[in-house]
Amino acid sequence: MQSMDRMYPLARPSPVAQLRSDEVQSGMAIVQATANPRAGVIISVKAVPGASRSGIVGVLGDQLKVRLSAPPEDGRANRELLELLAKACGVGRGDVEVISGHGNPQKRVFIAGLDEQTALARLGIQPPAPGQAAGA
Question: Could you give the angle at the alpha carbon of 98 between the alpha carbons of 51 and 55, nearest 5°?
């Protein structure tokens, strides 16, 4: 029997496949840097599918709230979310991937090639003031 890799080769390795769980810094921030800043960031997202129009709404607690016009069927809302975040962050669609919450409104999305400050700026999020906890 052939291995799954031989049957379904990836055109490009997933950026998330290169992350190990110990590379993600702990904390409840909207944007979390990985241990290797050049690897990328992980964003906590609250997706609202079925909205009248798509767009980044703003910060909701410790998550980035995003409206999606696509319905939550057959992964359509997830695809739209990835396209919207890629465009907002100025990266290619292949550099953005849902790493958890595929069937849930609360998601964690990995964006390759951005550092924390760049991601915050491109998403229009004000970083917390020094000494202030993120999401507070």
Answer: 30
